[in-house]
Each structure stands twice: as C-alpha cells, then as structure tokens.
Amino acid sequence: MTKTQHTQNTQNTQNTRTTKNTYLVAGATGTVGREVVRELLERGQAVRALTRDPAKADFPEGVETVRGDLADPATLKAALQGVTGLHLITFTGGYEPLETGPEILALAREAGVRRITVLHGGDQTPLQAAVCAGELDWTVVMPVEFMANSLEWAEAVRAEGEVRAPFADRLSALVHEGDIGAVIAVALTEEGHAGQEYVVTGPQALTVREKVAALAEARGSEIALVELTEEEAAAGMRAQGHDDATIAWLLDVYKNTPPVGRTVTDTVPRLTGRPARTFAQWAREHAASFGRA
C-alpha cells in the first residue's frame, strides 16, 4: 500500500466515524424513548423526537421535536424525510396495539430509512409482525421488567415506609431503562444487528425482598415489606381500576415469572462494551423519589 492510499483509507475511516445521521424516535417522551434520545445524542447523531404534543415535550438542547402519531401515518411523512434510522413502539398512547405497520413501513421506504428498531411490547403485535416481514433492516429489542417499575412503590415508601407486594420471593432479571436505550442506539447506528431479537436484562436476578433492601440502603432508612396474598393484591389492583382479565394476567406473571424474565443475558455488555447497570445503582439514582433520609 502506498503512503497516499494509506492516507486516503485513514480519512475514509475517520469520515465514517464522524458522519452524523438523523434518527427518528417514536415514543420519545416515554421511559425508554428518552433514553434512546439521550444515547443517540451522546453518539453525536441528529435526533428527531416524535410526539403528539410537542408543546409538552422537554428534551435536551439539540433535539428536534416533531409532531406525529403512529396511529395516523399521514402525520409521519414530513418527520421521516432524511431519516436514516427509525425507532418504533407497538402501542398507541392508550395502549392499544398499533395496526398501522404496513403504512408506516411504506412511508419509511419512500423516505430512504435503512434501519428500524422495535421495542417489543409483550405478545407479537401487528406492527412488530409487519416490520419483521418487511424489507428494511430490523431489530427487535425485548426488555424484561423495567427497574423504573419500582417507582410505583415510591409514594407508599415516602408516606408509610413500606412496600406492599405479593410473591416476595419471585425472581426478576430487571433492567435499567438506560441500558435498554443503549442497546437500541447500538442497533440503530451500527452494522450487524439486522434480523436480530435481543432479550435485554440486568446483571442479576433479584427477589422483591432484595429490591426493597437495595432501595432502603439507597435512601438511608429501612423499608418494611408487607407480603400480600393473591386476594389482597387483586383487591388493590381492582381499586386502581384494572379489570379482571388484566388482574389475572398480572398475578400469573408475578406468580409464574417465565424463564425469560428471570434469566440474565449478556446482551448489554456484548453490544455496549460495558457491564449492565445494577438495581443498586438505579436505586441510588432515584433515592430522592423514595424519600432519601
């Protein structure tokens, strides 16, 4: 190789690394969506945050906020112009499965989108099925229980110093929402992830007892764990407005957590090059929400 060729190859590599692409993030105001936005910004990419109400959105400087609704594909045409990668969720704001996958994919192809990531929403949804059957490079990201779900205990911990929950010894390989966002950002911006379905977990499977202990340590004062019976848990969910079918499903998931929900994977370290964040770290980050002593 001549000196000139070596110099040209080096310049080409540098240009590849510094190329700024534009990524459209749906669900950008959600728990995971915000982390996807943050991770893409840290990678030096241009980010468009899709939201139904831009006036209520609050994103870091440099994020372009655009109006759009996955349930109404016609609203996405302008937002998709110039976009390299698209991150999708599979439910409407009312948690109804989206049926608009084919229309969204057609618009994405027309706009020149090259990659799509989908945040798995549980069962195979129509939108996810459409993406996986489509022509564009896709990656499905399947997180287990979010660490952020523990915030549902925050009010009771602040007021009563206790957590009331059933099945205190059930195991969960719960995952930090930041790690979900990091995996999605990698899949959107790097080669080699097309056609993959990634299960994303934290670094350890914990019981409810262990989670409560970690929260108590982080906030600097004890938290009592009151283990509910199934009947007591069902009554509490009913009081929160859940219907019987949802209650039955939730109790079954809690009581019989499937292996995928309690088995640690290496997805986070393998894709991001760093360890998955622990629940103890998440607890320290959110100690104020639980009434730091």
TrEMBL record:
Q: Where is this region: Disordered?
A: 1-21
Q: Which domain of life is it from?
A: Bacteria
SUPFAM superfamilies the record matches? NAD(P)-binding Rossmann-fold domains
- The residues covered by the NAD(P)-binding domain are 27-119
For this protein, the record's InterPro entries field holds: Ergot_Alk_Oxidoreductase, NAD(P)-bd_dom, NAD(P)-bd_dom_sf
Known Pfam families for this protein? NAD_binding_10
- Recorded protein name is Putative NAD(P)H azoreductase
Q: Which organism is it from?
A: Streptomyces aurantiacus JA 4570
